[in-house]
Amino acid sequence: MTEVRWLDDREERAWRSLMAMQEGLAEFIDRRLRHRCGLSQGDYQVLAHLSEAADPLRAFELGRLLRWEKSRLSQHLTRMEKRGLVRREQCDTDQRGSVIAITVKGIELIEAAAPQHVADIREVVVDHLTAAELEALTAISDKVRKRLAAQDPQR
C-alpha cells in the first residue's frame, strides 16, 4: 500500500473553499428557484435541457446530460409529470422506449424562471469576477471535468 499524500494547508484551504462554495451556491440557487418559481434546481435543469432540445429527448439522453442515475431520473420525471411539466410519449424509432417532452406549462415556467435564474447567477458569481477570473474559473472547471471523464468513462 502506498503512503497517503495528505493535503498541505494551502491545498486543504482550496479544497474546503471549493466544497463550501459548491454547497452554498447550490443551496442559494435551489432556494431562489423554489421561492420565486416553485421549481427545484433539478426541475430547472430538466426543463432547461428539454426546452433547448430541437426534439423531445430519450430518457437515457436526458439522464446523460444531467449525469443522473436511471432511477433518480425516472422518479424525478414521474413527479414532474404529475405536476404537468413534462410528458412521456412513445418513441417513433423504438417502440420499447419513450421520449420526454416539455409541456406548455413547463415551457411557461422555464421561460419565467430563466431570466431570474440568470440574474441570480450574475448576482453571486459572474458580476463579481474579472474577465481573467472568469477565464481561470472556466479553465479550472474544464480541466477537472476532463480528469473526471477520464476516471469514469461510463459517465
From TrEMBL:
MF-aspect GO terms: DNA-binding transcription factor activity
Q: What is the lineage of its organism?
A: Bacteria, Bacillati, Actinomycetota, Actinomycetes, Pseudonocardiales
Tell me the superkingdom of the source. Answer: Bacteria
Q: Which InterPro entries match?
A: HTH_MarR-typ, MarR/SlyA-like, WH-like_DNA-bd_sf, WH_DNA-bd_sf
Swiss-Prot/TrEMBL GO biological process terms: response to stress
The record's listing under Gene3D superfamilies reads: Winged helix-like DNA-binding domain superfamily/Winged helix DNA-binding domain
Q: Which organism is it from?
A: Amycolatopsis camponoti
- This protein is called what? Transcriptional regulator
Q: Which PANTHER family match?
A: MARR FAMILY REGULATORY PROTEIN, TRANSCRIPTIONAL REGULATOR, MARR FAMILY
* Domain (HTH marR-type) ranges: 11-146
